[in-house]
Amino acid sequence: MTTGPRATERDDLRRGPVVWAGGASHVGTKNPPNQDALAVAATNTAAHHSAIAAVSDGVSTSPRSELASQIAVDAATDSLIDALTRHPTANDPDDLCLAMRMAVLTAQDEIVTQAGNDIDGYACTLVLSLFHRGLIIVANVGDSRAYWFGDGGTNMILTTDDSMAQLSISLGTPREIAEASAQAHAITKWLGPSSPGLDPTVSAFRVAESGWLMVCTDGLWNYASDADALRHVFNHLPVSADASAEKLSVALVDWANEQGGHDNISVGLIRIEEEDLRIAPARARQETPSPAPPNSTEAPPSRAQAVEPDPYDTPPQPELPL
């Protein structure tokens, strides 16, 4: 498994394997050490672009949550890279959803193994995103999120939080009220030995326009939860129009710190252009699957320039034209 960054580097971490995919993580102003973790990997071939971005937020009440979060992003990303190495031309949404699900379960297994008898010491969230052959696949456990910011003005939260706030929202409470409640950030699912049964939410999306795929921890979205509000922040960052994904991520982290930086902050960004969408399959679905035969003929990607997935399956869900 990939070794994570040193603790001092982690307090102000930046990742940019390619111009169009990158991220940043920062300890914030109030909560050292940085219990968030970040991983970004991408390929940049003439045939197509693929990328992975993952962030994890260590549960503050768990004494080794910073270890759990690092294991989570490393194990999940490595699992996906391995799947994409073995099946680089996979483009069925069912197959890719299963690969994502297996990546999250692999992360859980790694955390449990590392924890040993320390049942309560390791706990974290995870949001894992993949752009591959015209499809966006996201998986999440806890309240770290994925967003879509379309160039045509379509802005969406792609994940559903596993939290008390989300339970309240599902019962009809307005988001701004639910997320301001005392128990808003109490999560109902997490990775770690004390998890009551891990069932990640996995979704596939086919987008019809260029835009940005973003993953982040609540250290960012706490200050602009709504997709339109966060897109407004994104559009007014003090960076050049052609700024890299890494620089944009750093600017988002800086903005969150300017709002108070009351939590650790992590952001991963993947830029998707219209030409990257032309090989999208005709359907997009959501949740559980079954392996397909390998068909790899390409050399495996390295972690610093990663990606290409494993066939798997998941029950049908309506397409979401973003």
From TrEMBL:
Q: Where is the PPM-type phosphatase domain?
A: 21-272
Stretches with biased composition (Pro residues):
312-322
Which residue ranges are recorded for the region named Disordered?
Answer: 279-322
Family annotation (CDD domains):
PP2Cc
**Recorded superkingdom:** Bacteria
Q: Which Pfam families match?
A: PP2C_2 (PF13672)
Q: What is this protein called?
A: Serine/threonine-protein phosphatase
Annotated organism of origin: Propionibacterium australiense
